[in-house]
Amino acid sequence: MTTPAAAPLPADDSTSGQETFAQGRQAEEAGHLDAARSSYESALVVSPDQPAWHYRLGCVLLKLNDPGAALSSFERAAAGAADPVRALTNLGVCHDRLGQPAEAMRAYKRALGRGRSAVAHHNLGAIHAEEGRTEEAIRCFEAAIDIEPDAEAVLNLGLVYYARQEFGRARECFERSIAEEPGFALGHYHAALCLQRTGMYRAACERFRHAARLAPRLARIPYHLGVCLRKLEEFEEARASLEAALEACPEDGRIHYELALTCDAVGLHQEARLHYGLARSLTEDHD
């Protein structure tokens, strides 16, 4: 906990505030967020110059999905803390959730001006990536990984390379994310996408199947697996996989198109025409 910057209040008020804050911590740890918020706010009425208390209130408000209210808490926490990096980083998170990327970037940069933060680098990289600044995104994700190697950060670095169609470098990142966390389904899934994009369909099938075992709810796996199986001319398996994909996403024109190709390959021409028509119709609807 950060040491308060202000002089302590008289013993009775200070003790009362500390007790109320402690009650808030117990409530927060037990998941009783409304009670925690009430306790923190009461404690701060008694002893308002407590950066650590403002920080905890901000964290609870974020957990309650009220980033607008959390802004002032993190600002006050940052203003009074000896080490404001976490407060400034969470200030950026608030702006991010409020759809204010420019303000979020300023907060993350303020945090990084005061110290090291893998989270601030990572979140700043995510904004750069979303806005198409890939070089800046790569630098931020690499800085985050240097501070704290993490499967998600390495995955996001890989996604930037994937978006640039640098599939070799992307796959290296996805494989590294798996090394950080062997059961990381998204790492296996995106490594499989790289294999698919580079024509290594047999290897891609194995990775898609492994990702599906780790995360059966990843809805896009049956589609990509079906595409790879069709490329390998394993049409019956491809059809079964694509039909499973269609159950999850019945209005996806790409699935209908792949099913049409697959049906044509096994002589189901009437069914193929149906799927070609649906693929065309759904594509036009989304133009």
Going by CATH, the homologous superfamily of the domain at 149-218 would be: Tetratricopeptide repeat domain
Number of strands: 0
Strand coverage percent: under 5%
CATH topology of the domain at 149-218: Serine Threonine Protein Phosphatase 5, Tetratricopeptide repeat
- End-to-end Cα distance: 54 Å
Taking all residues together, what is the mean pLDDT?
A: 92
Instruction: Sum up the overall morphology in one term.
Output: elongated
User: How many helices?
Assistant: 16
Query: Helix/strand/pairing class, anyone?
Result: mainly alpha
Secondary structure: helix percent: over 70%
Please write the string of helix (H) and strand (E) elements.
HHHHHHHHHHHHHHHH
- Round the Cα radius of gyration to an integer and report it: 25 Å
> What is the class of the domain at 149-218 in the CATH system?
Mainly Alpha
Q: What is the correct CATH architecture of the domain at 149-218?
A: Alpha Horseshoe
